[in-house]
Amino acid sequence: MSKDVKIVTIGGGSSYTPELVEGFIKRYDSLPVRELWLVDIPEGQEKLETVGGLAKRMIKEAGLPIDVHLTLDRREALKDADFVTTQLRVGLLEARAKDERIPLKYGVIGQETNGPGGLFKGLRTIPVILDIVKDMEELCPNAWLINFTNPAGMVTEAVLRHSDWKKIIGLCNVPVGMKMGIADQLGVDPERIQIDFAGLNHMIYGLNVYLDGEIYTDQYIEKIASGDVSSGTMRNIVDLKWEPDFLKALQAIPCPYHRYYYKTSEMFEEESKAAAEEGTRAEVVQKLEKDLFELYKDEDLTIKPPQLEERGGAYYSDAACSLIDSIYNDRRDIQPVNTINNGAIASIPDDSAVEINSVITKEGPKPIAIGDLPVATRGLVQQIKSFERVAAEAAVTGNYQTALLAMTINPLVPSDIIAKEILDEMLKAHQEYLPQFQNN
Amino acid sequence: MSKDVKIVTIGGGSSYTPELVEGFIKRYDSLPVRELWLVDIPEGQEKLETVGGLAKRMIKEAGLPIDVHLTLDRREALKDADFVTTQLRVGLLEARAKDERIPLKYGVIGQETNGPGGLFKGLRTIPVILDIVKDMEELCPNAWLINFTNPAGMVTEAVLRHSDWKKIIGLCNVPVGMKMGIADQLGVDPERIQIDFAGLNHMIYGLNVYLDGEIYTDQYIEKIASGDVSSGTMRNIVDLKWEPDFLKALQAIPCPYHRYYYKTSEMFEEESKAAAEEGTRAEVVQKLEKDLFELYKDEDLTIKPPQLEERGGAYYSDAACSLIDSIYNDRRDIQPVNTINNGAIASIPDDSAVEINSVITKEGPKPIAIGDLPVATRGLVQQIKSFERVAAEAAVTGNYQTALLAMTINPLVPSDIIAKEILDEMLKAHQEYLPQFQNN
Amino acid sequence: MSKDVKIVTIGGGSSYTPELVEGFIKRYDSLPVRELWLVDIPEGQEKLETVGGLAKRMIKEAGLPIDVHLTLDRREALKDADFVTTQLRVGLLEARAKDERIPLKYGVIGQETNGPGGLFKGLRTIPVILDIVKDMEELCPNAWLINFTNPAGMVTEAVLRHSDWKKIIGLCNVPVGMKMGIADQLGVDPERIQIDFAGLNHMIYGLNVYLDGEIYTDQYIEKIASGDVSSGTMRNIVDLKWEPDFLKALQAIPCPYHRYYYKTSEMFEEESKAAAEEGTRAEVVQKLEKDLFELYKDEDLTIKPPQLEERGGAYYSDAACSLIDSIYNDRRDIQPVNTINNGAIASIPDDSAVEINSVITKEGPKPIAIGDLPVATRGLVQQIKSFERVAAEAAVTGNYQTALLAMTINPLVPSDIIAKEILDEMLKAHQEYLPQFQNN
Amino acid sequence: MSKDVKIVTIGGGSSYTPELVEGFIKRYDSLPVRELWLVDIPEGQEKLETVGGLAKRMIKEAGLPIDVHLTLDRREALKDADFVTTQLRVGLLEARAKDERIPLKYGVIGQETNGPGGLFKGLRTIPVILDIVKDMEELCPNAWLINFTNPAGMVTEAVLRHSDWKKIIGLCNVPVGMKMGIADQLGVDPERIQIDFAGLNHMIYGLNVYLDGEIYTDQYIEKIASGDVSSGTMRNIVDLKWEPDFLKALQAIPCPYHRYYYKTSEMFEEESKAAAEEGTRAEVVQKLEKDLFELYKDEDLTIKPPQLEERGGAYYSDAACSLIDSIYNDRRDIQPVNTINNGAIASIPDDSAVEINSVITKEGPKPIAIGDLPVATRGLVQQIKSFERVAAEAAVTGNYQTALLAMTINPLVPSDIIAKEILDEMLKAHQEYLPQFQNN
């Protein structure tokens, strides 16, 4: 690895980019980024220039010698990159809005990561990521691909299973958000909290919580159960309370997304109501983004605006920059990432992607073996893993039946017939982004 | 094993008993049953005498030296038994009716085997079976326990995991019913059909169908998909059609009970309608049984009446007597049974019960290794296995939270809150049969 | 499969062929062989004609319409075959003699299957088998390859791992020999004995012995330990007694070849003495074969001569013809064969070859899951599996270092330095049969 | 955990103790040891007082408030301990000398850890450790047991499998010695070297070596192969060179003890020669220890004398004190220790002890998943694991046959007959320390 670091961010015109830039600025001493390439597609050029302008001002304000390049030429950018981050959104937020709205019509939550919406986000995204990987094999074979693009678990699975590229890490802000939330609830410094994370992306459990190194799981669950603290959630997921006795029996901390599976009917009500009132999450975000970009355009703005946190990507910067920093410096610290299981979780195949606490080294993440997940959680986790695998296969093959199979086995979808109805409407709605399904 | 065989049937007053008696009569040459003990509880004495009378007349008609004993004293019956079959029903059909009706009120299918109803059937039944096992350890330690009592998978899991008794086999008529159904649909002798069965009880797949030893799976699926043949079902499950493309992608033959999971919303509609009209299955069966027992009382009846098949237990006799015969004679033929996995299915723990094609020997069933289930099916199967394990633990411990956990993770139950509502109402409704929960 | 069966036997000029022919004659009613093609190489033409002549006379004597074809053109023979059996010997018995003699010079047993000799037999044989497989893919893609050629475990592993051909079964007469030996020792009909076989080729254990379906393992071990019965061996392995306390603790029946590993020093003494006196096994067999071929030439001979049993291949005919018959007729009976593990033995990788009791169907063998081997045996079995895998890789790649690794990890070889000495001398001695190593 | 740390060292009269004391002194700021209890048996009282005196002087010289207690009352010492370290030697060096000498008479290396000598060291030691564990359950249930006593792998396995105590960590100086040796050979600071350690105690491999975080394995192997650097060994193992081509093919760094298995014949020669000349290692150490204790008696000595390094325990202090410090401070750094596998190495059972890089937390070590060991190494590793398990069972049960089985399956022992001869002589020689075998 060259001493000076070259970062390429695909989907660089995203509103998240200032998070990343802030992270690189903060860590410059240990992670000397020399070049930051922000790549986007023609449709995103305006945003790219807005965000890129802000990025340049932020760096200038910090007085650092980081060159920011804005380009639509992905291959030019990738040449000799050290780290490639992907935060692209095929079909933009309009597509996400469809992912969320169409299933609702059939009485089903869309859920843009592990639900029917996530299936379609995967179908649109995976071929693009596999194309990027092909370019990387040629142009920067030693680089690491750090994928933030959802569905991050499915994308990681797809790259591991359907390409020869092994240097991929899927990254999510859910685990760090859980940690921060717990620290906040307990009123302690986050440094004092440790969590044994294991599961899948957006299907991750905190198997144990530690306070100052001592197990604190039962006490924490007791606090949630008694209502002393909130069970925690994220900006984009309504904070429905867990049934206390369920939580005590589970003996693990669910992540905010688990509400979709353990509170399906209540979440459906919430999402339906939201869709009818303020709009689906995508629609809310579209508005937020519009406001953000207005802010970004302000030539006097030279820092990440605080409003960005409303957007929902809190801690992404920290998670991503920490990860890159730990790889670059071979820190061997522990971070929860999406990587190959390698036996760390017994009931998931060794060659599948899991989201798990891993030691981060210059040679990549090494997952910490947990034995197995609690009995009660294995089925749901394996069901999402089956869904991810079948969905990834559908994305690669463009096979209609395989896509229907993925839709039908999704735990949010209540029957093969409804699965087909949703599938057919969504295939049509997204057809311009699904060339692999044109022959069906 | 003594040359003369002693069979003990617990729940001997069941309407199914004439099936068994017919099976023993047919196989007498190779399986010389000398004593048949029908055991029941005081509440069942009248039925026991009715059924016992018919059994005696059937045997007399056949001219065989089989002694039929009717008793309420289980321990007397068990002494030196060779095979013990269990077909008991704690709380009788009244309890089953509650298992089916109460969940419907909350928008949830009851499903008396793998659903919320099955959870309660397990909670009532498992302690009784574990008591029987304790008696067997003392009174007939060399006997085999052949359990027909539902939920047969959960009961087998409970005995394997919560007792030291290893000589248990769970038996179900679903696989043989699938085989007969396929033969019937194809218009061929059932002998010409072979099926690679693997999965769990009421969650079993035909991984491959063979006609005359050659793989016929795709052709058979094609026939179902094109509507040439029915996908097959059982007396108690409405024959909703599979979505053809789903079936083709699944690349395995689901069992009739899979409709509850792959067609949840349609099945809920059907069950609700039935409950409102002709009554739930339990209520229908109550009427059928009443008629059957009237028939049984007829002193001129000396054979199994054909009306019994309506009852839904078709092939139980064949399955059970074949199994006992193969054990007794060390036939080493292949039968699908519930037994310890031992690595036969990779994604199920080695020490859990599975329902799988096994070689039947005098030393018990030896499962045939399949590698693993198709990817798409693993999650659902593992989810039911998690449910069975947590439910079995709740049955043994009487722990309320554990029961709530089992209810919540059941794939038919849409949330922790609804789970608690159903649980609470059912615990109350069944309280006389759930002494282990009295302290909660 | 065509109704008339076409068998191709590669290495048809082998002295074993009359065994096979006898087997096909005996089973003609259920296995209607219409064509038997005996294939050999130019150096074997004379033997091929001698054996072929006897085969034709045997069939004529039996009055059966089986056409025997003798040919040096393998591809002509393979066209549309139903079963291909391989019993070839690259380098003939001269090569085997070297496999046995060279290691002895270094204080090491040669052991032509799992020892240093076996490594070289594998290096010579595997490329030839992979060539045959390539022809089969083209000329008879539906045929089964039944491989008798040693080292049968390593060859099966090599085909499974280094080709796309899955329809291979490795066959050995050791298990059937053990069964016959036990029946003989106990003075009972072999039909009354069943054995749970599991392990690897020439490294197989009888995990349990049954007499009339009841476990008889301890009694049988007791009989061996007390000297009441012989522990049994084969024509080619001297019958050294097992240490009784070792056998009782092992709680499994070792196969005759296990003497090489559990009695290495005594076996080395025996083999050294034999080499100095009557000659190594290859040298003895060379003489036996010469005599056999003299017999075969006798135009009046129309049956398999009884002297063939001295040769050591007893029961090969039965094993091979039974296997082919069970596949052809989809018998679903149990036979011990070398096939893919698929989870049947926990401590062997799922995708490796094992030798194990399997249900034999028209679609191939389905191994019966045993859970795991006894703890005490796992290491040795895994060591031979590691050896087989590394040896197979060396055979395919012709990599010198890989061959040295295989030699060094073989449990009979006491050091890396001695391994290199043996390897170097044997590579030179066999160089004409090891073209893949010419570039080293 | 109390803020002030109480350490109990069983076998406190060992010559190693000053290493430990030095370690605690160095780390006092982060690991505030307040009490150090040195426990020994009556036969060791004199040494205990000598070593204890030195310990007190060292602490006084350092000016630290650590109380050193010398006692023969183990139970008094254990009360409320935080960490218990075990470095006892049942039968003292006299017993080790027998472990080494007796097998040599039969042509077999004794090897006091994984060989026949190790079997006997295990038989003597395991019951004592299990007694200590029983005391700990009662007197200090929250303490960690850090076991240095060899055979450390077998002892860890025995405690995990034959007691309910889970808070045991087995510790060995081999991995740290390998790291230090490599750094020394390369002339770099040890901080710059990282090694992926995995395997079993004294059977551990460096799967990869990193220099400054980048993989350096091939270059390092190349350097050893070319003779540029030594392959490294320990004070007690002669530095026989690895065959370069073997090493290159192995693609992993063996540990010094691997010479016993990959160079058995040469090691036997060396050990025989040593036994005939300067004496076995035990005999050499006896002399060294005598000299050391003379030094320790010097009232002017207030530091660890440099001669202690000759003794062979280099880095034990660092390894042990680092481990305790990381647990105490929840450092979550990576250290190679003996702990439960939990799926980290696929071909070792999940519930067995392995020696592997682990993240060290206040709640104990968490092994880092490696997938599996290289194919070529699995058999030998599994063989030692089988040996350890059978040996542990023999130690607990005192069963003669089980002990014979352990001896026979040890890879250094060439036959069941020789195994019995060695076993019988050793059982007699050590009988006073093997009360569990008195009834055989």
UniProtKB/TrEMBL annotation, chains A, B, C, D:
Mn(2+) binds at residues 172, 202. Pfam families: Glyco_hydro_4, Glyco_hydro_4C. The keyword Oxidoreductase does not apply. GO terms for molecular function: 6-phospho-beta-glucosidase activity; metal ion binding; oxidoreductase activity, acting on the CH-OH group of donors, NAD or NADP as acceptor. It is an enzyme of class 3 (hydrolase). Its cofactor is NAD(+). InterPro entries: GlycHydrolase_4_CS, Glyco_hydro_4, Glyco_hydro_4_C, Lactate_DH/Glyco_Ohase_4_C, NAD(P)-bd_dom_sf. Binds 1 NAD(+) per subunit. Keywords: Carbohydrate metabolism, Cobalt, Glycosidase, Hydrolase, Iron, Manganese, Metal-binding, NAD, Nickel. Substrate binds at residues 96, 150. Residues 197-413 form the Glycosyl hydrolase family 4 C-terminal domain. One of its GO terms (biological process) is carbohydrate metabolic process. The record marks 112 as: Increases basicity of active site Tyr. Its EC number is 3.2.1.86. Belongs to the glycosyl hydrolase 4 family. This is 6-phospho-beta-glucosidase. It comes from Virgibacillus pantothenticus.
